[in-house]
Design goal:
By secondary structure, the protein is of the alpha+beta class. The chain is built from 15 helices and 17 strands. The structure holds 4-amino-1,4-dioxobutan-2-aminium adenosine-5'-monophosphate and magnesium ion.
Length: 501
């Protein structure tokens, strides 16, 4: 039997020892009589030094022939070296070329996002996706730990269903033995049945929305975590959502520092994710949106962006003047910076185009409407941490929501909005408990009552107050990692125009 190799993340346990690493060549530098092989094995990167005088001919040749992403086995001695990534270096004694890679399509130069997405199966090996998806894993584990420690049972809802949950406009319909079936939009209704059986449960599964719009915030397939609790009212529900978010962010800050650093994530806004999150009633949110204060904030944002634009253009101009006389390394730095500046300028240009519309939308926001993405963003500018908006107009919310006993126009829904423009990461609320009310709601929403009959049983046999919510995993990952688009928050994104790889 083969032995497991030593993993790069465990090199600190092997200082001074001889280890065998297996992985892929990330990068290579050559100097006279020396190769520096940067090896990656999925757990990290390490520099392996191959000195011609110290190795046999076969090893020297393997190091010489190894191309980017060739598979390698490296045996050598582990040395502490503060200056290296990960803090260690391996002085190689033997290198075996397990597979020599053809010309690798993803080179250290800048590629466009479409190119990278078309090569997502390979792009996963690069630093940014690697760090992002390791954080995703941390978040998943943090979520399980949070619920398991609080006595919740993880229960799976079906993926093939006969009913809509969140409205019929985003249903994926499939042919199910000559009947219509749908890919689930949410496990909630089945979650409610399981909560009546087990008390506190959470589902953790894939959900599907035929989102016709191409936005940075929508996938057609995404993962949702949906706790559902018997005997929880709206306030308890909001408290649970707050506790969960704080737990996730604190865990990532504690356990994934290195990954956040790879992403260049400014952690200051994450450090501020502490209880209590402001509770903002919908009515109040509308007032904030229409306020002079909001108009002023948008004005200030426009001014700041214009200033940044001017400064970046000046920097680019100065760099170009310097370029002629610059040394090679300096030229490389200027080139890299130029790419960065271009990207930022494009963002600024887009924002400057959109912001006047944001101001319009906020100023004229009509009571009764649902918030758009820009409204959510502007709203969160008023706070330094996530906020919980609650008590929405019933007309914009799903059929199953309980009405506010104080005001029948309102539903006891709640959304958690993340800061920094990330918008809604959680949607949920308290559920209606009255059978007659729900039957009327199903009718008014033009939903077929027969497929909800089993759901109505939950209101026939021991109907009790209960609540729950859905946390979008990719929205959470995108926010915590500081990603511009949800597509990078999942290994293989599914979008309206993307089904491969
Ligand atoms: O607000 P939503 O639609 O709520 C529900 O589905 C409820 N049934 C959940 C419940 O109460 N059990 O979706 C919940 C969350 C959103 O806040 C968002 O984070 C995420 O799911 N989400 C999406 N994420 C990615 N792409 C999409 N198209 C998403 N639609 C919703
Ligand atoms: Mg929602």
């Amino acid at each position: 039997m083969e032995r497991e190799p030593t993993y790069i993340e465990h090199l600190n346990r092997h200082e001074g020892e001889t280890v065998t690493l297996k992985g892929w060549l990330y990068n290579k530098r050559a100097s006279k009589g020396i190769f520096f092989l940067i090896l990656r094995d999925g757990t990290g990167l390490v520099q392996c030094v191959v000195t011609q005088d110290a190795v046999d001919e076969a090893t020297w040749q393997a190091a010489d022939e190894a191309t980017q992403e060739s598979a390698l086995e490296v045996t050598g001695t582990v040395r502490r070296d503060e200056r290296q990534v990960g803090g260690y270096e391996v002085q190689a004694t033997t290198v075996r070329l397990l597979h020599r890679a053809e010309d690798y399509p993803i080179t250290p130069k800048e590629h466009g996002i479409e190119f990278l997405m078309n090569h997502r199966h390979l792009w996963l090996r690069s630093r940014r996706p690697w760090a992002t998806l390791r954080i995703r894993n941390r978040i998943i584990m943090a979520i399980h730990r949070f619920f398991q420690e609080r006595g919740f049972l993880q229960m799976d809802a079906p993926i093939l269903t006969g009913n809509a949950v969140e409205g019929t406009s985003t249903l994926f319909e499939i042919d199910y033995f000559d009947r219509k079936a749908y890919l689930t939009q949410s496990g909630q209704l089945h979650g409610e049945a399981m909560a009546m059986a087990f008390g506190k449960i959470y589902t953790f599964g894939p959900t599907f929305r035929a989102e016709k719009s191409k936005t940075r915030r929508h996938l057609t397939e995404f993962w949702m975590i949906e706790p559902e609790m018997a005997f929880y009212d709206l306030d308890m529900n909001m408290q649970l959502a707050e506790d969960l978010i704080v737990h996730i962010v604190q865990t990532v800050l504690r356990e994934a520092r290195m990954e956040l650093e790879v992403l260049g994530r400014d952690t200051a806004p994450l450090e501020r994710v502490r209880p209590p999150f402001p509770r903002v009633a919908y009515d109040e949110a509308v007032e904030i949106l229409r306020s002079d204060e909001t108009a002023r904030m948008i004005e200030e944002k426009i001014e700041a962006l214009k200033e940044e634009e001017t400064a970046l253009k000046a920097e680019m101009e100065a760099n170009r003047k310097r370029y002629g006389q610059a040394k090679k390394a300096e030229k490389r730095r200027i080139d890299a910076r130029e790419i960065e500046i271009h990207r930022r300028l494009a963002e600024i240009e887009e924002d400057l185009r959109n912001l006047p519309q944001w101001a319009e939308s906020a100023r004229n926001f009509a009571w009764g409407n649902d918030f758009g993405g820009s409204d959510e963003t502007v709203l969160t500018w008023h706070f330094d941490r996530p906020i919980i908006v609650h008590r929405f107009p019933a007309a914009v919310k799903a059929f199953y929501m309980k009405r506010d006993p104080e005001d029948d126009r309102l539903a006891l829904g709640m959304d958690v909005l993340a800061p920094e423009g990330y918008g809604e990461i959680i949607g949920g609320g308290e559920r209606a408990t009255d059978l007659a009310f729900l039957e009327r709601q199903v009718q008014e929403h033009n939903l077929p009552p027969e497929v909800f009959d089993w759901y109505f049983d939950l209101r026939r046999y021991g109907s009790v107050p209960h609540s729950g919510f859905g946390l979008g995993l990719e929205r959470t990952v995108a926010w915590i990692c500081g990603l511009a688009h949800l597509r990078e928050a999942i290994p293989f994104p599914r979008l309206i125009d993307r089904l491969t790889p």
